[in-house]
């Protein structure tokens, strides 16, 4: 089915429409063999609050962006190669339902669909695209993925020292290795994580010590591990580590 659509005029028109919605700031999306599988609005769990994002699933990439005018204009385009993607289902938590993790070596995050059926369809299509890509390339699935950041709202105190309270002065930071919300004194060190950045990035003291001794796995918690150590209560919405989707995430 995908092979038949690859060179069809209908597929080309659909991809051109997506390109036009992102405008000149977006990357060209039309290449030989690329097929637009589906699209829809998903709720992305950003660092400060959940936000609606427009997602487009192609047979080789996943594209998403901010919604400016629904079905007409999007910005802040992100392109994720599917061969680096793994996905995991998330249990429902309060108002956050029908979710799953999108994990890549560069960035990992949670998204939520409007219904269980929509979640199932998205996950099935993504898994099939990834499987087909890896089968054609002969590559193995990626075992390395960036940590899912714990949202700011999940931590009123530092998740490492368990003492420092966050205020407009004592601001929140995120460890790029474990995803924990930590205070400044607990995250003063930098470490080179080549899959995330060409420059050393902020990590917590705990992860720095483990990385320095070569223990790469111990400081990589699952999303549920991170959440179990956080405190769920109201917060002052302050942080100087902006999510890279936009300056407000």
TrEMBL record:
Keyword Endoplasmic reticulum among UniProt keywords: yes
Cited InterPro entries: PH-like_dom_sf, PH_domain, PH_domain-containing_F, PH_Phafin, PLEKHF2_FYVE, Znf_FYVE, Znf_FYVE-rel, Znf_FYVE_PHD
Residue ranges of every copy of the PH domain listed in the record: 35-131
Ranges for region Disordered: 221-249
Biased composition (Acidic residues): 238-249
Matches recorded under SMART domains: FYVE (SM00064), PH (SM00233)
Role this protein plays: May play a role in early endosome fusion upstream of RAB5, hence regulating receptor trafficking and fluid-phase transport. Enhances cellular sensitivity to TNF-induced apoptosis.
Protein name: Pleckstrin homology domain-containing family F member 2
Biological source species: Leptonychotes weddellii (Weddell seal)
